[in-house]
Amino acid sequence: MGKPKAPRRLAENEARAVTRTIRVSPQKLNLVAAMIRGKKVDSALADLTFSRKRIASTVKKTLESAIANAENNHDLDVDALVVAEAYVGKSIVMKRFHARGRGRASRIQKPFSHLTIVVRENEETGEAA
């Protein structure tokens, strides 16, 4: 029989995409996520395309996935989508050691992070079009 279907956590006019275990620190990833927060998706894609940050290509892939989810799974209008939320979470931190002088070692931390992007269909632009 199984469990009953879980209720949808997002509103009916929202879709999201999650990318987990990205090899970048959450602080650096949040700089790129803040760059697209609140923008229309076409403007956000253009910003990510021409950004000089290394991680911008991964953020762009996640945004494109959220747009595809909105279009295919939730039947939302792509032209009316806005990046409602873009937030970053901490993941694992790999600890490594680096050899230093006089037989000592220093610790190197290699952090990972998670990225969640929520796109929302804006009703005002959808009706005006």
Automatic annotation (TrEMBL):
This protein binds specifically to 23S rRNA; its binding is stimulated by other ribosomal proteins, e.g., L4, L17, and L20. It is important during the early stages of 50S assembly. It makes multiple contacts with different domains of the 23S rRNA in the assembled 50S subunit and ribosome. The globular domain of the protein is located near the polypeptide exit tunnel on the outside of the subunit, while an extended beta-hairpin is found that lines the wall of the exit tunnel in the center of the 70S ribosome. Part of the 50S ribosomal subunit. CDD domains: Ribosomal_L22. InterPro entries: Ribosomal_uL22, Ribosomal_uL22_bac/chlpt-type, Ribosomal_uL22_bac/org-type, Ribosomal_uL22_CS, Ribosomal_uL22_sf. One of its GO terms (biological process) is translation. Keywords: Ribonucleoprotein, Ribosomal protein, RNA-binding, rRNA-binding. This is Large ribosomal subunit protein uL22. The keyword Protein transport does not apply. GO terms for cellular component: cytosolic large ribosomal subunit. Belongs to the universal ribosomal protein uL22 family. One of its GO terms (molecular function) is structural constituent of ribosome. PANTHER family: CHLOROPLAST 50S RIBOSOMAL PROTEIN L22-RELATED, LARGE RIBOSOMAL SUBUNIT PROTEIN UL22M.
